[in-house]
């Protein structure tokens, strides 16, 4: 009897440990991007000077993600103080709430909340409120697209805190919205102090204390359904493989607008809502974004692809949009028309991923749904005779990401195949066999 109970407890313990292991692995994988394995947003706190009751710190946010940026209305950063700290002043940003500062007389802090929420300032604020790399409305470019614009910073004066390296307590529970959910931030970790060069580059100084916070993105945490889909076509097949039905979730048809509807003529229809709720054009896939890949032409040593990105959301313009594509022939891109292109080599020796994005001041803004709601380009690729083929869907991409979100691909058996492919030959052969059997039955 005792042995049976022990075996049962042992089995339950094994199941419990396995479940915990699975959850840990799943949660880690959810934030892992195979096309950008080292991508993250790092928040760095540098204590620059001590004050009577605390310190002045420079907070810098670096977006090290190759093709995922933070678009308008921008980032929102939050944390929880370890003690009873307050923010006396802040330059280059502001907190969304002041909190209860009734116990202070005379000099009132900027924020007294235990868990402050900080947002970036808008462009055009007075110079005395600005800080280096601030005041962009919270917009952060991706590292691959524009490294100089992938940094945001502000300066904060903290009171009722420690005044030495040993008495300062690190903030906890960091949160980052960019602008919606999806980012998970780790614990603050003390790192070697940041070093700075003076303007004449002849003297090196360093921060008094530095800690880092790393935030990673997970599409699973951001939304339960994809936000984009992919359709395919080619010159060698009349079939157009459209996006799968309800690719971005089946929604109530009353929440979408048909193209050409009189409702679109009303004023304010394109105004974004506080909830960021989209107003989509009615389609069978119900996605805000559709990416179309068309195999256009075949030359002796090259082949040409046409790319088109269409916006079906009437309430959102996509600024600084990016398109990341994985395809084995992207290692031989010869020319890209109308878009900028940059190869992504996450694993060093494998060059099968590239990033497309709009030309500055030309088509880097994808307008809302309507006549101007699309951007197009063509890509010329050189053939690698050892690997190149049009058969079995080789000419179509393996993965497509729009603004860092993986798009839903059609099922492989629906791809436009070559007319003489094995798939169609099998159908023709089976039809011939059926006809012969029918003929033999009739003759007998």
UniProtKB/TrEMBL annotation:
Keyword Oxidoreductase: no
GO cellular component: plasma membrane; side of membrane
Compartments, as annotated in UniProt: Cell membrane
Keywords: Glycoprotein, GPI-anchor, Lipoprotein, Membrane, Signal, Transmembrane, Transmembrane helix
Leader peptide range in chain numbering: 1-31
Positions of transmembrane segments: 426-443
Pfam (any one): COBRA
Chief location bin: membrane
COBRA C-terminal domain ranges (all copies): 227-416
GO biological process, one term: cellulose microfibril organization
Topology within the bilayer: Lipid-anchor; GPI-anchor
Name of the protein: COBRA-like protein
Organism: Cannabis sativa
Lineage: Eukaryota, Viridiplantae, Streptophyta, Embryophyta, Tracheophyta
